[in-house]
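Help! Submission page says 'invalid entity' but I think these are all valid:
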Amino acid sequence: MIKESIQDLPGGLALQTPSGAHIDSTLHAMPLQTHYYLPLVNYQRDVLQPNVSVGDKVMGGELIASGVIAPTSGTITQLTHHTWPHPSLTKVKTLTLAADGQDDFLTLPNITLCDDSAEEKLQRIERCSVHGLGGAGFNTAKKIQRVMEHNAPTLIVNAVECEPGINCDDALIQNHSVAVIEACDALCKWLNVSNALLAIEDDKTTAIEKLTQALLAQQSTMQLAPLSAIYPSGAESTLVQRLTGIQLTQGQPAAKFGVLCINVATVLAIHQAWKGLFSAQRILSVTTQDLKHSVNLQVRFGTPIDSTVQFAASVNPFIAKSLNENRASVSVGGPLSGFTQTNDSTPVMATSNALLVGAMPIKKPQSACIRCTDCATVCPVNLLPQELYSAVSAQDTDTAQRYALDNCILCGCCDLVCPANIPLTSWFQHGKDELKHQRAAEQNAVMAKARSEKHNTREQQRALDKAKADAQRRKVAAQRSQSAIDIKAALERVKNKRPSS
Amino acid sequence: MLWLTLIGLALLCTGIGYGFSRLSASGNQSDVLVERINDCLPQTQCAQCNFPGCRPYAEAIATGQANINQCPPGGDSTIEALAEVLGVPVVALNVDYGTHKEPQVAFIDEAACIGCTLCIPPCPVDAIIGSTKLMHTVIAEDCTGCELCIEPCPVDCISLVPAKPEVSQWRYPKPARAHD
């Protein structure tokens, strides 16, 4: 029941939660809000077209754009540009939904494991808008579809968080361990999974205890895989490598190798979708910036961050205190993976797993790299961040690619240990985006070249055809004028032959 | 001894054969060079370099009739790439040919368009669609922003707009450095 002999993470950091930290694992459900903001953008940053117009009445669960559902019933009141939780702090087209207070949802029939076909199950997952709740927000139906090409795949249920301040998966398991195991078993049965693992940090003792009880009660074949609490054990590529030995390079999904690596809350969302429940909410941790106090809330997607933080403050006085601190701000995500967001009506989305509230730690002054290689020691994917940094900061993309910039998982470990306080992860994020942009530009150039070659060939052909037609016309005209001369000459001869009268 | 002679002869033959194959390939070598130069160019086909497109410019560079700093849309990165291919030093962009601009695309004011079709043939990448006395439009994804459609338009309804920095094209900014 417990998987033994798990490989160690090659690098990583044991991030200590401060002593005297108090994590509230009760799930506090947020009351219905008056307005929800639904950004029309997906996890790949593609802009989506709305299916509804301003003034339309919608039911909870109605598809208002591809992959976006209404979190409650109400009226669409606006289509404006609004901020969304993203480090760019840009605005995207966003629908505003004014709740009518009825909270009516569309009803969908139950999907049963044995009777309904695989297509119906997949369609239901898509229809209920189940997205990865771990942090990347991947389209779950697409992920599963890829795994289904393999016989007897491996299932890795990911409940590893490791970043202090994020404990939503822990809270979920502590409150719904039986439902989680049921959902995992249903998924195993459906996909004919050969090897099912549930990865969790070994210091989450309450959650492990509850899971063990649930596994026994359900007579489940799932194996628990307790990992030492080293950040970033929860990152997909490192997790897959440690549990299956398969080495993934960036851009290669685990699904390609028949491994379904899926967040624990997402598994539960799939099971609930089959029962007709829409995936319109998530559990979110709100933590003070000093990481000492944390509460877990059940929040619907589209809830403004300021209301969420207010509600958390009403539940926990320490959060209220942090909120009133000098220079208090809100960041989305954990202390390493997060980014600062202003405390405003920016909505919570599927990828928002935590909010940190309070005064940000002051940035220490930067100095030049002393090539101590501390960053290389902690890198969990065995890169050489010091080399990558010099390549990326010199805009040398070829060298950056040689040092496998693509494989960087942007975990932030190197930032934390750098004695020169260089923002290495920001550099790598910048380098990755530049590389992506450069590849897109190259792709566009190839397309433009092909189109221009076709255009030139066509224009040349047209010019040739025209020249040919002109020549033909001239020839005909010349022939005509020649015959006219001939006739004239003949007439002349006839005239001359006649004896003059 | 006989063996050694035979091996020597065999080596000589291989050498001669190789020489012949090199000689026959040298006819295509300038093509290969032109192709490599062309691959460094942004394929905007804007003719700002005073050649009628990227390939003619590449041919001119290959034969030494043009400098490598005549391509404003490519900017510094194109000059660097060309310098590396040709093994020549990097030089600054010659501003006589224009300045480097952010990516842009042509936009037709559809209400003002009279459907004259004059802008269609100059477009080097066939990115304009329209027909006689019917509205024309630009396929933004295919437009290279070469500006060649601007001049032929009799009613001046074509303008260039910045290729919209949609959120999907957003790039993480460069962090500040210690000595910046």
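Support: the input was valid. A stray whitespace character was the problem, and the output above is from the cleaned input. Residues 284-359 of chain A form a domain with the Ubiquitin-like (UB roll) fold (CATH 3.10.20.90).
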